[in-house]
Design brief:
The protein is α/β, with parallel strands linked by helices. Among the domains are: 173 residues, ANL, N-terminal domain (Rossmann fold), CATH 3.40.50.12780; 98 residues, 2-Layer Sandwich (GMP Synthetase, Chain A, domain 3), CATH 3.30.300. The protein has 15 helices and 26 strands. The strands form 6 sheets. Strands 2-1-10-9-11-12-13-14-15 form a 9-stranded mixed sheet, sandwiched between helices. Strands 16, 17, 19, 20 and 21 form a 5-stranded antiparallel sheet that branches. The protein has a 4-stranded parallel sheet with strand order 4-3-5-6. The protein is globular. The chain starts with 6 loop residues before the first helix and ends with a helix. Bound molecules: adenosine monophosphate. Adenosine monophosphate binds next to β13, β20 and β21.
Amino acid sequence: MTTAAHADIEEILAALADDRDREALVHHDRRLTGGELADTVHRLAHTLDGRVRPSTVVALLAGNTPEAMAARYAVNLLGAGITQPHEGLSVEAQARIVDDVEAALVLVDAPHAAPAAEILDRAAPVDALGLGATDHWPDVLAESADAPAEPISGRARPGDIEQVRHTGGTTGHPKGITYTFAHHLRTAEVREHLSGFGTDGAGARLLVATPIAHAGGAIADRTLGGGGIVVLQDGFEPGTFLDALGRERITHTFLLPPLLYRLLDHPALERTDLSALRSVVYGGAPANPRRIAEAVDRIGPVLSQFYGQTEAGGISALTPEEHGKPELLETVGRPIPSTEIAIVGDDGARVGPGERGELWVRTGTEMDGYWKQPELTAETIVDGWVRTGDVAWQDDAGYLHLVDRVKDMVVVVGGHVYTSELEDVLMDHPGVRQAAVFGAPDTDGAEVVHAAVVPADPAPTGAELGDLVADRAGAMYVPREISFVQRLPLTGIGKTDKKRLRAELTG
Ligand code: AMP
């Protein structure tokens, strides 16, 4: 019998099976129909039944492959949770994640067999199966070929773990963020308020080049459930991405801002057919108003911004229409209807209108807690409010302005330098394509500001940029050092990797 806890996954599978012959999932030169994908999921679930028990966690060492999508659904149907570490993390970090969740089973897709073998060498002993032929583990997909394709009834109860997600890891060791199946249902309710964001069902052709373990996966689920097609790419490469946009007549996509800038800076953008494109949602990291205005100009009035957090869920959004007003590009939009916000000062009290403070939010879609870290959970979720760790202020019209991550702010002699504010000043120079700002200790131990910029042609000089900053933000904001780099390192999900940048430039 269907219970509410996994109704969403069963709905996706029913939508796939209902229209069996429609194309559903594209990966390289493979094109799977809805029926093929639904059958694979059910066969896999029947085969894993008994080996995967409700409320355990299965680690998925896999990329953006059809096998990984099928494994997520099959494991969740059996009432177990998934953790899919970002491939961009080191093998040690991924092994720690496998150990940390006490994985009941590890599933490995064929392209990840080599790194997975190294990860499992370092992790505590654990059963593993291949999602396809590998040299190391039995192929559970081959085994499942003879299993029945009849729908399996879901086993999840609302309190069972659905997913443990590890944050981007831009700073520090990644934390496990736990979602239960009950969370999944709450998210489905909130989505009612978000029509138009991400996908709009049948006819949608979604391109996913960011990890399915992050926002890309949830958007892919909605597209498949709504009768659309998902085109999966292994990772983001601007040329391949643009090629797919035109060839697959992509209607929807999701990108982090640094990836959007790479598209804008790619020569093939001008000759790409974007006529099918209806929605480009960006978010996950600060976006620069000048570059977003450029994107609207060159890609069309299809951009919308989403601000959210793995811990908190969806917070605010800026619609395509609002992208027509340049001053609104300085903001992250207005809170979505289901989200309540408070801006809180150091003393724990709400600040006055227009003042800066830490953003606290009540979303209804917050995490169920950090994996095995109750103290950290209690520090982060206070009386139902999630402390976002973002510094923000709200203007008279209700638009939210994000200033920085509390942890990224650089404490310099005389005050604070907000890194994303300084990045925006630098990127306002037409000779700067991208900028990243971080703090690093000086020889005497004090923190000083460093900037890395990706120059355009002609490139500005460091002195020119220093003058611009002094003029616009004051002498305190002028970076001690400005490095000119070819490109900024990115994390597995596509955020600027400031930790790596700091190590590369100051280590
Ligand atoms: P994650 O949990 O990895 O998705 O990261 C969430 C954090 O990314 C937020 O707390 C913000 O600091 C940042 N972020 C997400 N979306 C936006 C956005 N639209 N603009 C600026 N920063 C964002």
